[in-house]
Design brief:
Length: 327
């Protein structure tokens, strides 16, 4: 399939679990290599959802061009197919400006949609007979079908996200193929581009500690208020944006269904699980070269910043060496 990105184009990428420091490393890379950043995050595409999605600050956005952020309103539908089309347009523009695309994020399906040129069948449509039948099933029934027809999606889609589960099952049963495993490009991990990927990781207990602190910081910075404003605009509970980590739990708190302490506990627990799923996903990709941030429990923020800087230096050296080989 012709995407508009010339085969052999150099694509840099930094991937890994949430809260590991990908964005910080990307900004340091941008000071040494002429890049523009392409967000690979399924939730940063939504406007008004800033705190809970960890979007770059205004200063960071001024420092280096960012793409695929603030594209649609939370109530609007957005899919990986639409993301792919828009991201490709952004990457083509970056190439025309003689800069290098740097993909940064932790949404594995969005990442592979770009770098492996995956296609996404349209399925049966919301009015089809099969869709009406699937909508009548419980989440448990849908998950059972998904586990049998598309085990990769079963492992990666949150059990609470009925909309995505329904979509994955519909594609599997109506097209005779699954979203993930039946495409040759998915199985082979072969990109038409010169893909240079750095995976970032740290000791798991330290990562979980940082996730907990990050959740608390988001609340102190106004996540509850941000969620309330979005709900006031009529965001439905079945939409993708409403299922985003943090927002779903804060919405439940605002509706009086759970206490703030329960909401915080849920967000921390689900975010840790999500980080584990992200690592499992990216570990399967043999093209990723991993860099471990030297961390320990209880380290200060300055110590963490120093560790990030050291890892960024290693990533920059790796990127430069690979780019030189392409030239």
């Amino acid at each position: 399939m012709k995407t508009g990105i010339p085969p052999g184009t150099a694509l840099l990428a930094i991937v890994g679990p949430t809260a590991v420091g990908k964005s910080k490393i990307a900004l340091l890379v941008s000071k040494e290599i002429p890049v523009e950043i392409v967000s690979v995050d399924s939730m940063q595409v939504y406007r008004e959802m800033n705190i809970g999605t960890g979007k770059p600050s205004a200063l960071e956005l001024e420092t280096v061009p960012h793409h695929m952020i603030d594209l649609v309103s939370p109530e609007e539908a957005f899919s990986v197919a639409l993301y792919k089309r828009m991201a490709i347009e952004a990457i083509v523009g970056i190439i025309k400006r003689k800069n290098i695309p740097l993909l940064v994020g932790g949404s594995g399906l969005y990442f592979r949609a770009i770098v492996d040129d995956l296609s996404f069948p349209a399925g049966g449509g919301s009015g089809s007979t099969i869709r009406k039948y699937l909508e009548s099933l419980s989440n448990e029934q849908l998950l059972k079908i998904l586990s049998e027809t598309d085990p990769v999606s079963f492992q990666t889609i949150p059990a609470s996200n009925r909309r995505r589960i329904l979509r994955a099952v519909e594609v599997a049963v109506t097209s005779g193929r699954v979203i993930s495993e039946r495409q040759e490009s998915w199985i082979k991990y072969e990109s038409p581009y010169n893909l240079i990927v750095a995976g970032v990781e740290m000791e798991r207990e330290v990562l979980y500690e940082r996730i907990d602190k990050r959740v608390e910081k988001m609340v102190s910075e106004g996540l509850i208020e941000e969620t309330a404003k979005i709900l006031e605009k009529g965001l439905g509970s079945g939409s993708t944006a409403a299922e985003a980590l943090g927002y779903r739990e804060m919405a439940a708190y605002l509706r009086g269904e759970i206490s703030l302490e329960e909401a915080l506990t849920e967000v921390k627990k689900k975010t840790r699980r999500y980080a584990k799923r992200q690592l499992t996903w990216f570990r399967k990709d043999p093209r990723i070269v991993w860099f471990s941030i030297p961390t320990r429990r209880g380290m200060s923020e300055q110590e963490f910043e120093d560790a990030i800087k050291n890892t960024a230096d290693e990533v920059i050296t790796y990127f430069r060496r690979r780019l030189d080989n392409i030239k």
